[in-house]
């Protein structure tokens, strides 16, 4: 005689079904793990992406890399140093920079690497860096605008700019502006701008570039990376005929400290780490754009995996590029020479360092507290729109 009640029968059926499901899931995971293990060399090879095959030596050449104390920047520094270049590692944290330099010296015998302080979130730091650089370094053949910040909570730079656009775009714009004279005097020379595939998802919010109206950390990052692409194209146009080239790069999806501000992204990257590039693999396209012989006269293009890459329509719009250039110049206190069409706005002194009003303000801030550049920028914004 069956002693089970109908409810008990249902419960035992449900229990068996759950057990079966668990076994199926466990078996499925086991199969996936086995496949991943079996094909791990192929997966790793695919994930690694393009490799820079150039054997070019860089003896006697000078390279400057921002954010060179970690990730892609550190590996770029190591690669260029191993080719004989004198590499200046521009880092906001000198201690971290020195640790990275020590590691590079240990890995590359006779590496000529030096660390200098540069905080791209502070225009005064950028000016101080450039001033010293121009006094102490005679040539600059390779500038890699690599430093970047991603998905941080709403933060402002010292000058009051939103952090993503401030560091990733505005800071690098000012640095490039201050060093462009030296790059031209050292020609042939190259500028590499580390952008991202993320530029595809960005658009330039001219009405609220600093996300004061609304803030989304992902979109702010995408906007700044689109700004990198637009800056590259506009600078290439302005540098035409100077023998200084500029190209932008998507390094790939790379295991680095970039995700430090996003727990979700950090977890995703940890779980899928096998599919990501190592920083060394991520540095390949930057190195390629910095040295490849076949790119000698290529400028204004975008690269990924050491090959030309797709640029989103909003990254190809010349009008947006010019408008962004003008807005950036205004934020930096550099007034666009619309008539003459000069490479950069006309306010540079003989060394290329600003000798006008803004640098005076910076000097003041070193001793006291600087009056905000933002007030001036807002004035110009009101004037412009
Ligand atoms: N990792 C990836 O998957 C991708 C990265 N990229 C781009 O590659 C570049 C390098 O990133 P990655 O190596 O991955 O990330 P990391 O976080 O490892 O490196 C970023 C570097 O930028 C520096 N940095 C940040 N803020 C400033 C600042 N205010 N002044 C000076 N330096 C600063 C960091 O210094 P500190 O250590 O002191 O914070 C660090 O050295 C970035 O531009 C990023 O947008 C693009 C696409 C994908
Ligand atoms: C969906 C998905 C992934 C996520 C990719 C992401 C989220 C890439 C982000 C790139 C960034 C942030 C570029 C920076 O500029 C992995 C981890 C590859 C594993 C496979 C599935």
From TrEMBL:
Keyword annotations from UniProtKB, A to Z: Lipid metabolism, Membrane, NADP, Oxidoreductase, Transmembrane, Transmembrane helix
Pathway(s) annotated for this protein in UniProt: Cofactor metabolism; retinol metabolism
The keyword Manganese is assigned to this record: no
Pfam family, one: adh_short
Residues passing through the membrane, by range: 16-36
EC numbers on record: 1.1.1.300
Highest rank taxon of the organism: Eukaryota
UniProt GO MF annotations: all-trans-retinol dehydrogenase (NADP+) activity
Catalytic activity entry: all-trans-retinol + NADP(+) = all-trans-retinal + NADPH + H(+)
Family annotation (PANTHER family): PHOSPHATIDYLINOSITOL-GLYCAN BIOSYNTHESIS CLASS F PROTEIN-RELATED, RETINOL DEHYDROGENASE 12
Family (UniProt): Belongs to the short-chain dehydrogenases/reductases (SDR) family.
The protein's name in its UniProt record: NADP-retinol dehydrogenase
Organism: Cyprinus carpio carpio
């Amino acid at each position: 005689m069956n002693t089970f009640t109908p409810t008990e029968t249902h419960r035992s059926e449900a229990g068996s079904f759950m057990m079966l499901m668990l076994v199926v899931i466990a078996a499925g995971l086991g199969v996936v793990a086995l496949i991943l293990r079996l094909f791990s060399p192929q997966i790793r090879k695919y994930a690694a992406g393009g490799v820079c095959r150039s054997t070019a030596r860089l003896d006697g050449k000078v390279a400057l890399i921002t954010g060179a104390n970690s990730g892609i920047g550190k590996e770029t520094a190591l690669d260029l140093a191993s080719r004989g270049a004198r590499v200046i590692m521009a880092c906001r944290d000198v201690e971290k920079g020195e640790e990275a330099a020590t590691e590079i010296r240990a890995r590359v015998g006779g590496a000529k690497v030096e660390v200098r302080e540069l905080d791209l979130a502070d225009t005064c730091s950028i000016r101080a860096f450039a001033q010293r650089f121009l006094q102490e370094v005679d040539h600059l053949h390779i500038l890699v605008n690599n430093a970047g910040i991603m998905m941080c909570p709403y933060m402002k730079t010292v000058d009051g700019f939103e952090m993503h656009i401030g560091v990733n775009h505005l800071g690098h714009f000012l640095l490039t502006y201050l060093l462009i004279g030296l790059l031209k005097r050292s020609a042939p020379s190259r500028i590499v701008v580390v952008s991202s595939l993320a530029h595809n998802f960005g658009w330039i919010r001219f009405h609220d570039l600093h996300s004061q109206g609304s803030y989304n950390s992902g979109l702010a990052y995408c906007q700044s990376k689109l700004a990198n692409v637009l800056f590259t194209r506009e600078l290439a146009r302005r540098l035409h005929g100077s023998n200084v080239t500029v190209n932008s790069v998507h390094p790939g999806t790379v295991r680095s400290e970039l995700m430090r501000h996003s727990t979700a992204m950090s977890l995703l990257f940890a779980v899928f780490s096998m599919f990501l590039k190592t920083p060394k693999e991520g540095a390949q396209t930057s190195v390629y754009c910095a040295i490849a012989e076949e790119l000698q006269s290529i400028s204004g293009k975008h690269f990924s995996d050491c090959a030309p890459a797709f640029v989103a329509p909003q990254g190809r719009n010349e009008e947006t590029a010019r408008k962004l250039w003008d807005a950036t110049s205004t934020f930096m206190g550099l007034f666009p020479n619309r008539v003459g069409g000069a490479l950069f706005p006309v306010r540079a002194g003989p060394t290329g360092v600003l000798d006008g009003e803004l640098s005076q303000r910076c000097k003041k801030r070193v001793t006291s507290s600087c009056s905000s550049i933002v007030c001036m920028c807002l004035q110009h914004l009101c004037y412009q729109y």
